[in-house]
Amino acid sequence: MNEFDVVSLSKRMASFLLFLSCFDSLVYWVNCASQAEIDQHLQLGMNLLARGAYSDALSHFHAAVDADPANYMSYYKRATVYMALSRSRPALSDLDKILQLKPDFLKARHQRGGLLLKMGRLNEAHIDLENVVRKEPENSDAQKQYSMVSILQDQIEDIKDYINWNNYEPAIESLNEILEHIPWDPRLRELRADAYLGLGNVVHAISDIRSVTKLTSDNTGGFFKLATLHYQLGEADESLNEIRECLKLDPEHKDCYPLYKKLKKVAKFLTNAKEAREKEDWEECVASAQKVLKNEPSVTGIRFHAHDRLCHCNGKAGNTIEARKACSEAIKIEDEPRLFCDRADAFLQEDMFDEALNDFRAALEREEGFTRAKEGIAKAQKLQKQAGKRDYYKILGVKRSSTKKEINKAYKKLAMQWHPDKFQDEEDKKTAEKKFMDIAAAKEVLTDPDMRSKYDQGEDPLDPEGGGGGDQAFRHGGQQFHFPGGNPFGGGPFQFKFHFN
Predict the structure, then answer these.
(1) pTM here?
(2) I need a labelling partner for 223 at 20 to 30 A (CA). Which of 3, 83, 425, 485 fits?
C-alpha cells in the first residue's frame, strides 16, 4: 500500500468516526428530550391527580406510557387513576404490566392484591397479599386484607345458600355488607339483583344489573334483562334504549332483536298517544292507545299507560262509557287519585252524581288535600242540586261534551218542532210557548262560553235565585230578545218570526 492510499484511508476513517460521534450526540440529545417530556407528563399528571382532575391526569399518564413503555412508574401512576375512577379492569392490566417489568415492586403487588379483592377474585388476592405479608410482616393494611379473604369466602357461600332457599332478605343484608369490601364483582351484583327480584323490588334489581353491564364487557344478556325489566315497569322508552345497547354488541341477537321490533311499535304508539293528548287531539289519542293494547296483550305496566290515556281522552271526547271502562281498568293496576277524578268527570257527564261523588271522595282518601278532588266534590254537589231545576243539556238532548256546532244543530231542530205558530189549539200553544222558551234559553246559555262555564260549575246564569238575574235573554238570527220576569208568553198572542242561520 502506498503512502497516498494510507492518507486517503485515514481521511475516510476520520470522517466516519466524526459521523458516529455526531450521531451518538444526537441520540443522546433525543433521549434526554424524551425523558424530559416524560417527566413533565408525570409531574403534570400527579398535580392534576392531587386536584381530583382524573380524566386530565389520565391523558398525561397515557402520554408518558406511550413515550416509554418500559417505565413501570408510568404504569403505576396510571393504575392509581384508573382505581380512583373505579375502572378496575384497565387498572389490573397496568398492575400486571408493572409486575412483569419489576417483579420485586412490593407496593404494586400489594395494590394488585387489594384490587383483586375488590373484584372478588379472592384466590388470586390471597396469593398476592400472602406474598406481601411474608416480606413485610409489619404491613398492617396487607395483614388486615389477607385475613379478610377467608372470611369473605365463607360469607359468599352463606349468601348462595340463602338464595337457594329463597331467603332473600338475609341474603340482601349480607350482600350489602360484603359489597362494601368487594364493590367490583359483577357476580355479587347479579346475586343481589336476583334477591331483589325475589322480593319484587324491580327498581333495585335494575340498579344492580346496570352496574353489572358496566363491570363486564359485551354483556348482551345484561342489557336484555334490563330491557325486559324496564318494559315490565311500563317504561317503554328506557327499555328501547337498553335493547339498542344489546344490538350494538350483536345486531342479530336471538332475544334482543325480536323484542326490539315489538318495543319500537309500542313505544311509538305510546308517544303518539301522549303527544295527541297534549295537543287535545282526542281521537288520535284514543286510536294510538288502542294500538298499544293490541300490540301488548299481557304486560300490565305497558297496558296501564294505554288505559290511562283512554280514560282521559275518551272522557274529553265525550265517550263516557268507554272512558269509565278504561279508567276502571287503569285503577285495577294503579289506583292513582287522578284516575278516580277522570272517572268521576265521566260520571258527571252522564248526570250520575252519586257515583261521581264516590270517586272524588276515593281520590281524597288516597291523597288528602288533593285539590282536584275537592273542587270536583263541590262541582258535583252543585250539579246535583241544579239537576232538580232546568237541565239545558237535556232540554236540547245533547251531551255535556257537545260542541257549539252540535248544540246549534239540536236547537234549530227543536225550535222548528216547537215553534208556537205551528199549534192552533190554545193549550197546545201554551205548552209550545213554554217548551220554546226553554229551548231558546238552553241555546243561549250553552253557546255562550262564559255562561256555559258557569252552568257547568253548577250555577244557572238565567236563574234569578242563583244570582243570574231576573231577565231571560237569548238571540235568534242576530237579534236579541229580553223577557222580563222569565215568561215571554204571559198574555196575548205572539207572532214568532226567527231566522235560523
Answers:
(1) 0.71
(2) 83
